[in-house]
């Protein structure tokens, strides 16, 4: 998701205007025991141009206190905790009222009570327009569980690994009342909210976890499907609200309590509002994660017909060599240390290169300008010895670490130098989706071709394309492997 903070003209708004706001020097404490909370006040200011809040502690006469330290708990787009006077949050994306609490400590103890307060962010500085377009097609868009895709249901320990414990195979739940369910999102009068509707499909059944007891079924020993519409006040049409998860750098969707969903994983969906973390969203597919106490659930949705299925060899069925192994035919890409760039604007006029550095086998690229389309952000490792034999198969891998999610990323391995159009290619994939953080990209059993004809070459280039990405995207590329296909 794109986190676009727009710095707009504004004024500095102080929740409390006081003079003491500097990091505390702790020089000991009085001998009177734990500090008296009544002797201190919080000083909270908000820079409304940047959505950054600053938290200071002061004495009642506005001076910097001596011998004590604050203990802040700040509930904003995430929970901030600090013992610093003068603590500054990161930029808070969404407008709203947020709460905080202050305790005071010294070498003798901590105050047994806390001061509670509220501060206000006036302006939302997250641009939801791209997410709304994909979610609703700027009108109304229908989604269903992507039954043909492995992992369309799953559970795991965290939002980063939401299917690590269990992952459904394609069509695994065909006997349950889930695959004919439909949900729609309709754009609303406000950008960050709209109308959500749920349909239980032709069979009228909703698929529920065996532990769900708030929809008329108790004591179930297995997951079950039941008629749930209207049961215990279950809702099929509600207002959804978009939000932003700063820690995961992605949009969220919040539905009210009792809102039905194609998979009712827990009574929490009936007992309170649920925020679905949108870990992946394209025009075609959407991955949602429900984070509960001790478990996360993953649901993958699709719009319209299934995606075209590529005939690919499962990379998990490959014996991958080490990066520094003799079998790594592409080892030279890790040590070349140089990149060539071609970045262009929407009209294909070449613009400046991105920021670039190389150290210890890691290529780091940061985009300076937004680009509009594929091939407008080419980053190429050129002229590296690479012995590719026509008719043979190869496996390709690399590690890409991204500072934000990237909706579209290209990976290509090609003969170098080549004729116009670079037709002599070992591999091309132009729709790679990068999540924020580490991405291990693996592609198995590929072969060099020119059109449909086998091709050989002894020198190649590795192309990574960021065309269509915004400014300030940073990727780190390392651990490139090209090996002869080695199936398990």
Summary?
With 488 residues, the chain is mainly beta. It has three helices and 35 strands. An eight-stranded antiparallel β-barrel has the order 10-13-14-17-18-20-21-22.
Note the gap between the termini: 36 Å
Number of individual domains: 3
Q: Could you describe the largest sheet, including whether it forms a barrel?
A: 8 strands, antiparallel, barrel
- Low-confidence stretches are 1-20, 22-31
Q: Beta fraction of the residues?
A: 35-45%
Q: Percentage of helical residues? A: under 10%
Written description of the protein model:
The structure is a single chain. The protein has 488 residues and is mainly β. It has three domains: 110 residues, Immunoglobulins (Immunoglobulin-like, Sandwich); 174 residues; 170 residues, Galactose-binding domain-like (Jelly Rolls, Sandwich), CATH 2.60.120.260. The chain has an eight-stranded antiparallel barrel. An eight-stranded antiparallel β-sheet has the order 24-23-27-34-29-30-32-33, with no helix packed on it. Strands 4, 5, 7, 8 and 9 form a five-stranded antiparallel β-sheet that branches. A hairpin with a 2-residue loop joins strand 7 and strand 8. The longest helix has 8 residues.
Map the helices and strands.
Blueprint: E1 12-14, E2 40-47, E3 52-59, E4 69-75, E5 79-82, E6 87-88, E7 96-106, E8 109-110, E9 115-121, H1 129-136, E10 140-145, E11 153-156, E12 166-167, E13 182-187, E14 193-199, E15 206-208, E16 224-226, E17 237-245, E18 250-255, E19 263-264, H2 268-271, E20 274-281, E21 285-292, E22 295-302, H3 331-335, E23 340-344, E24 350-351, E25 355-359, E26 362-366, E27 377-388, E28 394-402, E29 406-415, E30 424-434, E31 437-446, E32 449-450, E33 453-454, E34 457-465, E35 474-484
Parallel strand pairs: 15-19
Antiparallel strand pairs: 1-2, 2-3, 3-6, 4-5, 4-7, 7-8, 7-9, 10-13, 10-22, 11-12, 11-22, 13-14, 14-17, 15-16, 17-18, 18-20, 20-21, 21-22, 23-24, 23-27, 25-26, 26-35, 27-34, 28-31, 28-35, 29-30, 29-34, 30-32, 32-33
């Amino acid at each position: 998701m794109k986190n676009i903070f727009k710095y707009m003209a504004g004024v500095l708004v102080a929740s409390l205007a006081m003079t003491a706001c500097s990091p505390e020097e702790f020089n000991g404490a009085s001998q009177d025991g734990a500090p008296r909370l009544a002797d201190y006040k919080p000083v909270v200011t908000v820079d409304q141009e940047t959505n950054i809040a600053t938290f200071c502690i002061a004495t009642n006469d506005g001076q910097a206190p001596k011998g004590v330290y604050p203990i802040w708990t700040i509930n904003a787009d995430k929970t901030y905790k600090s013992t610093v006077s003068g603590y500054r949050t990161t930029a808070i994306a969404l407008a709203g009222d947020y709460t905080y609490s202050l305790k005071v400590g010294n070498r003798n103890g901590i105050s047994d009570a806390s001061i509670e307060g509220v501060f206000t962010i006036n302006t939302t500085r997250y641009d939801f327009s791209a997410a709304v377009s994909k979610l609703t097609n700027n009108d109304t868009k229908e989604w269903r569980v992507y039954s043909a895709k492995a992992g369309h249901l799953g559970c795991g320990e965290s939002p980063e690994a939401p299917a690590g414990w269990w992952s459904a195979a394609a069509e695994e739940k065909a006997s349950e009342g889930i695959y004919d369910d439909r949900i729609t999102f309709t754009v609303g009068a406000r950008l960050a909210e709209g109308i959500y509707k749920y349909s239980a499909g032709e069979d009228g059944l909703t698929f529920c976890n065996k532990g769900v007891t708030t929809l008329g079924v108790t004591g179930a020993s297995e997951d079950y499907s039941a008629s749930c519409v209207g049961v215990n006040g279950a809702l099929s049409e509600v207002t959804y609200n978009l939000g932003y998860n700063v820690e995961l750098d992605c949009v969220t969707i919040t539905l009210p309590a009792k809102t039905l969903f194609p998979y009712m994983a827990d009574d929490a969906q009936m007992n309170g509002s649920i925020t679905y973390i949108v870990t992946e969203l394209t025009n075609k597919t959407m991955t949602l994660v429900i984070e509960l106490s001790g478990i996360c659930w993953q649901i993958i949705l699709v719009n319209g017909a299934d995606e075209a299925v590529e005939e690919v060899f499962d990379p998990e069925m490959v014996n991958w060599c080490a990066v520094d192994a003799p079998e790594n035919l592409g080892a030279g890409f890790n040590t070349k240390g140089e990149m060539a760039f071609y970045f262009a604007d929407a009209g294909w006029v070449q613009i400046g290169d991105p920021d670039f550095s190389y150290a210890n086998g890691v290529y780091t690229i940061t985009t300076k300008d937004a680009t509009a389309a594929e091939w407008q952000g080419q980053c190429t490792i050129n002229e590296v010895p690479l012995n590719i034999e026509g008719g043979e198969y190869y496996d390709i891998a690399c590690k890409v670490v991204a500072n934000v999610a990237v909706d579209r990323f290209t990976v290509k391995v090609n003969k170098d130098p080549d004729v116009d159009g670079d037709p002599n290619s070992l591999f091309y994939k132009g729709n790679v989706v990068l999540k924020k953080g580490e991405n291990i990209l693996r592609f198995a059993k590929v072969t060099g071709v020119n059109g449909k004809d086998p091709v050989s070459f002894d020198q190649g280039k590795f192309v990574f394309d960021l065309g269509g990405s915004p400014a300030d995207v940073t990727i780190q590329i390392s651990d490139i492997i090209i090996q002869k296909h080695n199936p398990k």
